[in-house]
Amino acid sequence: MAEFPGRVRLAFKDFPLNFHTSARPAARAARCAGAGGLFWPYHDLLFVAQPAFSREDLIGYAARLGIDREAFVGCLDGGQFRDAVEADVREGLAAGVRATPTFFINGRRLVGAHPLAVFRQAVEDALSDGGIK
Asked: How many CA atoms lie within 13 A of 112 on its CB side?
């Protein structure tokens, strides 16, 4: 993003995998953290802590970031972001996503973890094809 300021945008979508039974609650928990402006720090904690996604783990990560416990637990237990996460899953399935991570750069699918140089080239290719859509 820093290499192409104002020329690219990032859209993050949830795609919790079915075999990871705690992935959906973790995705909803990240959304709850995001409601307080801390989505990315919480996301990063989840990435490092996986697969430790019990309810108490998720609440503990929120506490670590200074998120109000009562508000977070209310959001998590109330299922506030359940529909939004499921909408992302449906969108991903419709786009052919089957694994994580999956990236789309101007509609071109890139599956798996890749070196930064691969992403840089994909963005440069998209920009040379007439720009990012």
From this structure: 3
What is the length of the chain? Answer: 133
Candidates 26, 6, 7, 5; CA nearest to 16 is: 26
As a whole number of angstroms, the distance between CA 79 and CA 90 comes to: 18
Q: Which two structure tokens, joined as six digits, stand for 79?
A: 């299922």
Q: At what angle do helices 82-94 and 23-35 cross, to 10 degrees?
A: 120
Q: What is the pLDDT of residues 35-94, one digit of tens each?
A: 999 999 999 999 999 899 999 999 999 999 999 999 999 999 999 999 999 999 999 999
- Do residues 23 and 54 make contact, with C-beta atoms less than 8 angstroms apart? no
How far is the C-alpha of 92 from the C-alpha of 14, rounded, in Å? 8
Run of H or E residues at 110: strand 108-111
